[in-house]
Amino acid sequence: PLQGKEALGNPVSNTIANNMHLPVIWGNPLLQGVDVGVFVAVLAAVAFWAIMHRSTLGYEVRAVGHNPTAAQGAGISVARNYIVTMAICGVFAGLAAGIDVLGWEFQVSSADITTSQVGFLGIAVALLGRNTALGTVFAALLFGALETGTSAGNLTTTSLNPELAPQLTLI
Questions:
Q1: How many Å apart are CA 93 and CA 83, to the nearest integer?
Q2: Three-point CA angle 168, 128, 61, nearest 5°
Q3: CA distance 137 to 132
Q4: Which of 100, 153, 163, 165 has the fewest CB atoms within 10 Å around its CB?
Q5: Element (H, E) at 119
C-alpha cells in the first residue's frame, strides 16, 4: 500500500487530494502556515483534561497510575484501565497523525520522521509539561519551536552552524 508512483524504493503513499487539505488560517500555505489543526489540538487538550479530571474514568485511570495495588483493593479493574488508557492514547496519537498528514505532509512516508525520535520527544514533552494537559501543550509548543527553528533551512551560517544546531536542540 505504501508504494507511491514517485519513489518506488522509499515506502510512501500517494499524495492526498487538494480538497482534503486542512485550510490554512494564518500564513503562507506553501511555507507551512497555521492551519485549523491548531484548534483541533487545543480542543483535544481540553477534552483530555476533562476526561482526566472531571470523570470517573479519569479518576480510575489516575488511581491505577498512582498505585495499581491500592486501586485494585478499592475495586477498580487495573487490567481494564490499562487497556482503556492505551485506547485513549491511541485515539489522540491517531488524531495528531491525521492533523500532521492533512495539514502539512499530505502523504504518509516512512522517511519523514525517525520513529525513535518521536518517542523520545514525546516522553520529554510529557515530563516537561509535568503530565498535565496545559503543561504538555506549552512543552509541545516549545519543542516544536526548537525543532523547527533549528532546522537547516531556517538558519543562516552566520548565526550558528546549520549542521550543529539540530544536535544542540536534541541535547
A1: 15
A2: 145
A3: 9
A4: 153
A5: helix 115-128
